[in-house]
Amino acid sequence: MRDSVNDDLRRAVREVLPGVRADLDALIRIPSVSADPAAAGDVRRCAELTARLFLAGAAREVEILDDVPGGRPVVVATCPAPPGRPTVLLYAHYDVQPAGDPAAWSGGPFEPWESGGRLYGRGSADDKAGIAVHLAALRAYGGRPPVGVVVIVEGEEEIGSPTLGAFLDRHRARLAADVIVLADSENFEAGVPSFTTTLRGLANCVVEVRTLAENAHSGTYGGAAPDALTALCRLLATLHDEHGHVAVDGLVTGRPPQADYPAERFRAEAGVLDGVGLLGSGGVAERVWAGPAATVLAIDAPAVPEAANALTASARAKVSLRVAPGDDAVRARAALAGHLRAHAPWGARVEVTEAEVAQPYAVDTRGPAFEAARRAYRRAFGGDVVDVGGGGAIPFVAEFAAACPDAAILITSPGGDPAARAHGVDENLHLADFEQACLAEALLLAELANGVEGAGGADGAE
Fold first, then answer.
1. Residues contacting residue 106 through CB under 8 Å, at least 6 positions apart
2. What is the pTM assigned to this prediction?
3. Which whole number is the average pLDDT over 73-77?
């Protein structure tokens, strides 16, 4: 890219940033919690504001589509492709997680505030910053980018994007793209541009253990009659061996991106207490990006304050399995359910209900689109891009990969980093990285104007 184009874009992004920041603040002020039925009005209000913002110098055509039963409104903004130029699809979501106890926050969760170079508020990093990055990139071109652009901003990502697949299928023709940019991840650390190239999937089960017809006196029958809660604890303990490796047979371990992830840094970020060991073996990246993980999410059993001296007749738990890239979430869920049924202690009756799944994902980062992206982000941040993995699942990635199988998919950060506290108290956005992300996306559109034929695509579970 010519230096003059680079300089012009830097100036243009700087000029639009104050307005974009004000727009981001306005978005954060709307409590668009998709999981709360009582917030349906705020969810729609956020979609309507998002549409107005893209009409303000970012896109030529904007619609709010609400034509999938049970779905939240989807904002679609378009800039037609100049002749012979590729089309880029830009994704973000406007819904957010519940704030929890407002008193636990340092300020109002839906009243943005700045401190120490960070912008605080629910949705600041996840993912209203993604909306703002797309706004900045398009406004830097005055709404006339050098490539075609389709923007999708959905409102149900925080509940698993349950109708996104149907939406993409219904509007497949108008959403066709050569490159997809999903601005909903984190940089590996502040100041280090990162592409998320692998994601673990998810496979959940609910297991119920029964040992008695009804609760029984622990003094009269204890010592011979098994209680269900103890049996459940023994069953759950079989999920790991003595070293913390997942003991469910048949699960796959993938290959992580080659990023150095020191154990000391991981312990600090995860809040692991002094003296508590890490599970499993091998490098941290292998364990949290490329290996399976089993977690007991919840147990239904008598609460301590209400506990009686009785043997519990039944108890149940929800078990979550993180599925490695290269595995299949449905097959892994069946393996988990089979393990739980096969390891029932003392002949206890075990019933397993297979619950939600999300497929893992791995992207092939070869091809001209990724080369263009690395150049753009290197110019914006002043350093090379780091490929990282994601330990969590992002179900919508597989939906886009299925809808646009030939498109190159970039999973980027709009300014989040490990200190962003997404989903937690005092969620925040690293403002310097946010500004660099705005510039990087604008530069990316210029790079992609040269064409992305043979851009490559994504690999799901294999």
1. 115, 120, 426
2. 0.88
3. 98
Domain span at 247:
201-254+284-357
The position carrying tokens 């010519």 is 2
**Ramachandran bin of 48, using left for φ above 0, alpha for ψ from -120 to 50, beta for the remaining angles:** alpha
Same domain, yes or no, for 305 and 345?
Answer: yes
Query: Catalytic: 95?
Result: yes
Here the tokens at position 177 are 């793209």
Do 63 and 78 lie in one domain? The reply is yes
Q: What is the mean pLDDT of residues 73-95?
A: 96
148, 228: one domain: no
95, 158, 328, 427: which is the annotated catalytic residue? 95
Read off the CATH number of the domain in which 307 is found: 3.30.70.360
Catalytic residue, chosen from 157, 399, 417, 447, is 157
pLDDT digits (tens, 9 = 90+) for 91-114: 999 999 999 999 999 999 999 999
Hey, how many other C-beta atoms are within 10 angstroms of the C-beta on 108? 15
Give the β-pairing of 386-390 and 194-199: parallel
Query: For residue 350, what are the β-bridge partners?
Result: 209
What tens digit of pLDDT does each residue of 213-266 get? 999 999 999 999 999 999 999 999 999 999 999 999 999 998 889 889 999 999
| Residue 456 pLDDT level (bands cut at 50, 70, 90) | very low
Please check whether residues 208 and 191 belong to one and the same domain.
no
pLDDT at 5 over 90: no
Tokens of 281: 């073996």
Which H helix or E strand runs over 129?
Answer: helix 128-140
CA distance 207 to 232: 9
Amino acid making up residue 88: V
How far apart (Å, rounded) are the C-alpha atoms in residues 222 and 211?
A: 13
For residue 187 the two structure tokens come to 């940089």
CA 109 to chain centre: 20
Q: What average pLDDT does this structure show over 41-46?
A: 98
Is pLDDT at 458 greater than 50 in this prediction?
no
Residue 238 forms beta bridges with which residues? Answer: none
Both 142 and 68 in one domain: the answer is yes
| 389 and 340 together in one domain | no
- Pair (390, 447) in one structural domain: yes
Burial annotation 391-425 (CB, 10 A radius, 16+ → b, else e): eebbbbbbbbbebbeebbbbbbbbbbbbebbbeeb
